[in-house]
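Attaching the record inline, Q. Sequence:
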Amino acid sequence: MAGREDKAPVDRASSDKGIRVRDVMSRQVYTVSPTDTAQSVARLMKETGVGALPVEVPGVGTILGIVTDRDILVSVVAQALSTSTAVFEFMTVAAESCEEGDSILLAAQKMHDLRIRQLVVVDEKRHAAGIIALADIVRVSPELGELVLEGMSRHREPEDQQLEGISPCPA
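Structure, as predicted:
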């Protein structure tokens, strides 16, 4: 597992289009193995203050997916699964990613479209080079942050919203 570093410095004079993912991403990222447990991942998230961890092939570094604090809540806690449940049983396979050289506009658009708060930043070998989160984008461009939030709050399909056994209210 890798340690955490401070955010990269940002040239505030640059336009949003000129700011690259590498300029704002968290450069060092913690990763977990698909065989780690829900409890060990939750502890790592608590200790490091992160809400998402890329899942990588041990010893190889290739990113298989991502696990978020929400995944643990919805897939493990809410379903009363054991805290020893392995990450591969509830992770999101094929984590959404971007590259270090991508513009933050592109990253924000991807987050908006996919309704997600973070992207794994990968290098040319598809290894985790960092994480870019909504908070990173808001820090340099509140307008782009609003775009991402707008995408997250847009209407979802009824089957996505409906809780088991509860009918949606008529419009």
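Confidence is low (pLDDT under 50) at residues 1-15, 158-171. The first strand starts at residue 52 and ends at 56.

More tomorrow.
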